[in-house]
Amino acid sequence: MRVDGKAFTTIWADKATASVTVIDQTRLPHHFELISIADVEAAGRAIKTMQVRGAPLIGITAAYGVALAMRADPSDDNLERACGLLKATRPTAVNLQWALDSMRRRLAPMPPPERFDAAFNQAAQMARDDIALCEAIGRHGLGLIKEIAARKPRGASVNILTHCNAGWLATVDWGTATAPIYKAQEAGLEIHVFVDETRPRNQGAALTAWELGQHGVPHTVIVDNAGGHLMQHCEIDLVIVGTDRTTATGDVCNKIGTYLKALAASDNHVPFYVAAPSPSIDFSISDGLAEIPIEIRAQEEVSHILGLGADGDIHKVRLIPQGSGALNPAFDVTPARLVTGLITERGVIAASREALAKAFPERIRA
Ligand code: MRU
To answer: What is the DSSP track for 310-364?
Structure first.
């Protein structure tokens, strides 16, 4: 996608110099800065501190992290150590485990001297695949937006609500929830996006608003609690969110607050779609509430807020009284019954075991 008119992806790498570069998402939207990741420890830190975040991008960064580890020491022990270090960074998005499993499957049978080259190529292939998956989601989701546009009076915008950032910043390119939006813009449809600010880390206000702005997509940032009200007043035609882990039965784990949006959408008969690339689907589990580990993050993300000071730097200010406790679950689970459909790279399907098994038969163990 684009930053100040220039083409960018969120991550790129050069095998000859063993360098991996990412956009530092903790500095957006106020500062656009790149960081260089030189070893597996730096890759782990970038994921843990959320300089890179979003389920697909976490997976790709981890894959490059393994490649960097193989450059330093391609032994079996180091392969296991690197996978362990990266796996421990964030627990909820299944893409991390998926990426590490694919790297391990490819590298473990190989003689160690061949591992760096193969690991780098594999990570690069995964990055290219991620772009293709997101673009396919964009094409399938565009159909949904077109259907709604066809029912609206000429010139009226299709109003889409999204939560958190499932945009291109959360993937290598295109995004998942935003891919249909960017495709609709390319197709010349009138669209407008309501962007949930997404407390506590404000990925909507800081990241989704920034990237939509960079692409000239009309959008409005709203507080997290406004979505239900807007749905009651018919201001929202469609909700599209991303997912960190979707079960084999279609339960969807995504950024905290997604469940409340799904409840409001259901009560107001607003279609609620989840953009779900297959690496975000965990076919080994069936019960999202019982089986998905929910990341509990630092209280400070709730008790304090970050903003741009008059000096042009980013500052942290306290919101809650000294002595008050805070709790910070980062994700919640939306039961499949509240999901109108999953927008996958293989088409729009029901959030059900049957539909998922039919769309991805190779992922179902005999
Ligand atoms: O905590 P984050 O910012 O990594 O959470 C991101 C989300 O919840 C996204 O909606 C999800 O990863 C899908 S990204 C295509």
So the answer is: TTSSEEEEE-S-TT-----B-EEEE-GGG--EEEETTEEE-SSHHHHHHH-GGGS
pLDDT tens by residue, 102-142: 999 999 999 999 999 999 999 999 999 999 999 999 999 99
Cα–Cα distance for residue pair 272/324, rounded to 1 Å: 35
| One domain for residues 217 and 242 | yes
Helices (H), the chain: 40-48, 55-72, 76-87, 94-107, 115-151, 179-186, 203, 209-214, 227-232, 258-267, 288-291, 300-303, 353-359
CATH code of the domain containing 110 = 1.20.120.420
267 catalytic residue (yes or no): no
Residue 233 domain boundaries: 140-365
Tens digit of pLDDT for each residue in 58-85? 999 999 999 999 999 999 999 999 999 9
Nearest-angstrom CA–CA distance, 180 and 147? 13
Residues 216-273: pLDDT tens digits? 999 999 999 999 999 999 999 999 999 999 999 999 999 999 999 999 999 999 999 9
Phi and psi torsions of 245, nearest 5°: -165, 125
**Residue 55 counted as an annotated binding residue:** yes
- For ligand 1, atom 8, name the residue with the nearest CA: 255
State which of 10, 51, 53, 274 you would mutate to test the pocket of ligand 1, scoring each by most atoms of that ligand within 8 A of its C-beta. 53
ipTM of the complex: 0.98
